[in-house]
Design a protein that fits this description.
The protein is an alpha/beta fold. It has 16 helices and 20 strands. It is about 40% helix and about 20% strand. The strands form five sheets. Strands 14-15-16-13-12-17-18 form a seven-stranded mixed β-sheet, sandwiched between helices. About 50% of the residues are buried. The structure holds nicotinamide-adenine-dinucleotide. Nicotinamide-adenine-dinucleotide binds next to α9 and α10.
């Protein structure tokens, strides 16, 4: 499909009641292509009144959806998986256009994002419960699982499809209805997904999508309404904290996938080539715009120069350009604002004495491109050693002993992902346990898997998405006390 036909196939209204509809205000907003800085299209701009209407719809069908046999819910999820997979090229190109990542990475996200629909279609029929005889013989204990009720999902722009399917899949499988508030920079992928779901047989009202430029007001309208029962958020820690405070008002169930500052440790006994391959993935995949991105590359001093030289060579060879061009290996940053904040972190580090091995600044011309960068000798006080970079900047810091490396890795308020490279099995077991993170990659630069629980500790979040743990986030536990048999 060419770009014009593709854009024409994407609903540009709010997705409500199984169809595309304008905002009650009649207002719209523009979606930009970050590779050109030009407008792709405009979408409806939801208001609090639109949010109320979506919640009315989610509540009116909530009982019916919860009572829909798990097998039927599974079949609809599976049909949606098949439909997304059949339109994989359309979803991939759409993500490249609105978010900027290169097409091979967009294709990878389609496969990863669709897999949550297949995985949770398989989980829908295995929800289960348990029974037991009370130890005193006074009765029977029955434990059943029930959907939590209408849910709100708030998603970021960096994985426009997968951050949605990771929430929609388990919610629908559990029997919950869901309203999605997609990131304002990338609403198109979620709107296309909603249409695909409706075509796959999802009843109207079960899934709504509300793009808006006024997230705080739209989200507050929903969270202040006691009919909403859960909020699942992926985004920055700062916004997550606000939402947690708001969620306390109606004691909402919450799932929080927040920011990260992943350490990437390379020990002297690592396989150098494997570690460099891992660093390229953990740092440069998605243009470095990933919550799991290697934010602090910590390298033992015996291997540091060899590792830095090899990584620099690979990074310097990257081709910056529009994601749809075959030659491009890295696309633009999502917005000029985000690009400027990456530049400010690099400038601050350089002013403090860091050495630029390659890259270091914005790329002149149209679009929001930034040079893939390697920095080393970064002094302790530089902001880049503590803050989330969210861009293609590898920040390398040396260490001497295993204890020192682990201490540096854990010296952060975040605890999402951590990676380390060693060929020593004893060290592998030891360090995996010592790292304070919800997810640890051993000799691997990519860890996400729909069948595994994704989630952080410390200020990186609450709860898990994916795996058998993912559906539990959308289920309440009810104990039914029965008389003795
Ligand atoms: P963000 O927090 O600015 O925005 C995320 C979402 O929240 C967007 O949809 C936005 O419109 C909405 N939002 C913003 N302010 C809000 C408010 N006051 N009330 C309600 N909603 C509000 O984050 P971002 O810039 O879109 O994404 C980048 C961040 O997301 C990074 O910190 C990254 O680490 C994190 N992230 C985490 C994960 C994870 O799984 N842990 C995955 C991807 C991204």
């Amino acid at each position: 499909m060419n770009v014009t036909d593709l854009l024409n196939s994407v609903p540009t209204g709010l997705w409500q009641g199984g169809r595309s509809a304008p905002s009650e205000s009649g207002r719209t907003f523009e979606v930009l292509n970050p590779a050109t800085g030009r407008v792709l299209t405009s979408v409806a701009n939801a208001t609090p009144a639109d949010a109320r209407a979506a919640l009315d719809a989610a509540c009116s069908v909530a009982d019916e959806w919860a009572a829909t046999p798990p097998r039927r819910r599974a079949e609809i999820l599976r049909a949606a998986f098949d439909a997304v997979t059949a339109r994989a090229e359309d979803f991939a190109l759409l993500m490249t256009l609105e978010m900027g990542k290169v097409l091979p990475e967009s294709r990878g996200e389609v496969a990863y994002g669709a897999e949550f629909l297949r995985w949770f279609s398989e989980e829908a029929v295995r929800i289960g419960g348990r029974t037991a005889t009370a130890p005193a013989g006074t009765g029977e204990i029955a434990v059943v699982k029930e959907p939590v009720g209408p849910c709100l999902a708030i998603t970021p722009w960096n994985f426009p499809l997968a951050m949605g399917t990771r929430k929609i899949g388990p919610a629908l499988a559990a029997g919950c209805t869901m309203i999605v508030k997609p990131a304002e920079d990338t609403p198109l992928t979620m709107l296309l997904l909603a249409r695909v779901f409706t075509e796959a047989g999802l009843p109207p009202g079960v899934l709504s999508v509300l793009p808006t430029l006024d997230a705080p007001a739209v989200v507050a309208e929903l969270m202040n309404d006691s009919r909403l029962r859960k909020v699942s958020f992926t985004g920055s820690t700062a916004v997550g904290k606000k939402l947690l405070a708001q969620a306390s008002e109606n004691v909402l169930r919450t799932s929080m996938e927040l920011g990260g500052s992943a350490p990437f440790l390379v020990f002297d006994d690592a396989d150098l080539d494997r570690a460099v391959d891992g660093a390229m993935l953990a740092k440069m995949r998605n243009g470095g715009e990933a919550c799991t991105a290697a934010n602090r590359i910590l390298v033992q001093n015996g291997i540091r120069e060899a590792f830095t030289a090899a990584l620099t060579e690979r990074v310097a060879a990257m081709e910056v350009g529009p994601g749809w061009e075959d030659s491009s290996t890295i696309g633009p940053i999502i917005t000029e604002k985000q690009r400027s904040s990456i530049a400010a972190l690099v400038d601050d580090a350089v002013a403090a004495g860091a050495i630029v091995r390659t890259g270091g600044g914005k790329v002149d011309g149209a679009g929001f491109f930034f040079e893939p960068t390697v920095l080393e000798a970064i002094p302790d006080g530089a902001r880049i050693r503590r803050e989330e970079i969210f861009g293609p900047v590898a920040a390398i810091v040396g260490f001497d002993t295993e204890d020192e490396g682990v201490a540096l890795a854990n010296d952060t308020e975040y605890g999402l992902a951590a990676y380390f490279f060693t060929e020593n099995i004893g060290r592998a077991q030891r360090v995996a346990r010592r790292l304070q993170a919800g997810m640890v990659g051993v000799n691997r630069g990519v860890i996400s898997d729909p069948a595994a629980p994704f989630g952080g500790i410390k200020q990186s979040g609450l709860g898990s998405e994916g795996g058998s743990e993912g559906i539990a986030e959308y289920l309440n536990t009810k104990y039914i006390a029965l008389p003795p048999a």
